[in-house]
Design brief:
The protein is an alpha/beta fold. It has helices at residues 26-34, 84-94, 107-114, 120-131, 135-145, 148-172, 183-202, 204-212, 226-234, 277-292, 340-355, 364-385, 391-409, 415-422, and strands spanning 3-7, 16-22, 44-49, 55-64, 75-81, 100-102, 214-220, 252-258, 261-267, 295-300, 316-319. The longest helix is centred in the middle third of the chain and has 25 residues, at 148-172. The chain is flat.
Length: 429
């Protein structure tokens, strides 16, 4: 493979910048600039020289041997002073080496996949970890990067291969007198996989929300204080507020972190019978987003307006404009901040309860693959119940399920996904 190089840290002025070289000519190229390299996995301070022995920088140089690096190839990392001039000078010098070329976006990680240092789910976990903005996202992404999904999938695969092997033995010895009935063990294996796989599949939608963010919609009558509450939650003037009912006509979205979770709070138009065509569009959009939101905050007022929709059992009902009304129930005032901290705590509790059911798998791709496996295994269970004469069909259904689960970690049927996945990585990763 080509030897590639790139800046592996963020672009721009910094205290330290890291340049990574990976491939069969990594050591020779690095020694051409740094002289004698330090021992494997031992950092050493070296002067990096360019043409005419001109010193470009002093850097810590760290070498990783073949099979023991991130990419699985010989790798050298140079920790430079992080000015743009130093980085540019070092990269320009590396470009003069005929055996080296600049890495493409995500190419280091792609080589880690191709050299079996990471499976596909771990690659996705790494991408999520780089994009993580909240503590929940960090924990979830790190679990995937650590191989949690691959470990679970390997357990399923092992049980399914055993079940298929038992059925294949039945097929192979169909013409002989085989006293052992394999169906009890096959059923136990299938039932075990079905149970854990169904639980994991059910948890993917919550895991997807942790990754992509929960939607929390503030709904209520016109002039109930929804926009003022949104501004209080956001800590800035994200929405226009006024005493005129119906000021908000469109859905306003503000992303924030609540209780360590990524949340998009939606301020919606006041829910009432529309007074004009523009307001009607706003009310229609408000109802649509409220119906699809993960959690709704019903901000109640005393002006007698009907809300067109009713709270669900898991919604939060709160009295608005608490500075003007006395009540024994949960009440907030976006204007004064009264009760906002208690509302945030309540939102966190509601979302935390849902997060408890989150699975390891985090993407729609994972969920679809597991749903395909579930369908195939349910069909296999039915075929096993029909007896040995249907063993061949049952075995094929198990193989179908195994292939679906193999796609989770990139064993099969994922080539068309690779370009899309690695396109999300930055240059140097």
């Amino acid at each position: 493979m080509d030897t590639i190089y790139s800046l592996a840290s963020a672009r721009g002025k910094a205290g330290v910048a890291v340049v990574r070289i990976s491939g069969p000519h990594a050591f020779s190229a690095a020694s051409g600039m740094a002289g004698k390299l330090p021992p494997i996995r031992k950092a050493g301070l070296r002067s990096l020289k360019g043409a005419g022995d001109h010193i470009l920088d002093e850097a810590l140089v760290l070498c990783f041997d073949d099979g023991a690096s991130f990419t699985g190839e010989p790798v050298v990392e140079m920790q430079l002073h992080g000015s743009t001039a130093v980085v540019r000078a070092v990269l320009d010098e590396l470009s003069t080496y005929p055996d080296l070329r600049l890495a493409e976006p995500g190419e280091f990680t792609r080589r880690a996949l191709e050299n079996e240092r990471l499976d596909l789910s771990q690659v996705e976990g790494l991408a999520d970890l780089l994009d993580a903005e909240t503590e929940a996202q960090r924990r979830q992404a790190f679990a995937i990067l650590s191989g949690a999904l691959g470990d679970v999938a390997e357990g399923w695969r092992r049980d399914l291969i055993r079940a298929a092997a038992l059925l294949e033995a039945t097929i192979d010895f169909a013409d002989e007198d085989v006293p052992v009935d394999v169906s009890p063990e096959v059923n136990d294996l299938l039932d075990g996989v079905l149970k854990t796989l169904a639980k994991e599949t059910a948890g993917t939608r919550i895991a997807e929300r942790i990754r992509d963010g929960f939607e929390v919609a503030i709904v209520g009558a016109p002039n109930a204080g929804k926009s003022t509450l949104l501004n209080a939650l956001a800590g800035r003037d994200a929405a226009i507020t006024s005493e005129i009912a119906g000021t908000t006509r469109d859905v306003i979205e503000v992303q924030m972190e609540l209780a360590g979770l990524p949340v998009t709070v939606l301020d919606t138009a006041g829910l009432r019978e529309a007074q004009d065509s523009v307001e009607a569009i706003g009310v229609e959009r408000a109802l649509a987003r409220a119906n699809t939101a993960d959690l709704r905050i019903f901000l109640m007022s005393d002006d007698g307006h009907g809300l067109l929709i009713d709270p669900r059992t898991d919604d939060i009902v709160v009295q608005g404009k608490a500075d003007l009304h006395e009540t024994d129930r949960l009440a907030v005032s976006g204007l004064t901040g009264q009760g906002v901290d208690k509302l945030v705590e309540r939102i966190g509790e509601c979302l935390a309860d849902r997060v408890k059911g989150a699975g390891i798998a985090t993407r729609a791709r994972h969920r679809i693959a597991m749903e395909r496996a579930l369908c195939a295994l349910e069909d296999a269970r039915i075929e096993v119940q029909h007896g040995p004469e249907r063993a061949e069909i049952a075995a094929e259904e198990i193989r179908t399920a195994t292939r679906a689960l193999d796609s989770l970690v990139g064993r099969v049927d994922v080539e068309h996904l690779l370009d899309e996945i690695f396109a999300s990585f930055c240059l140097g990763k």
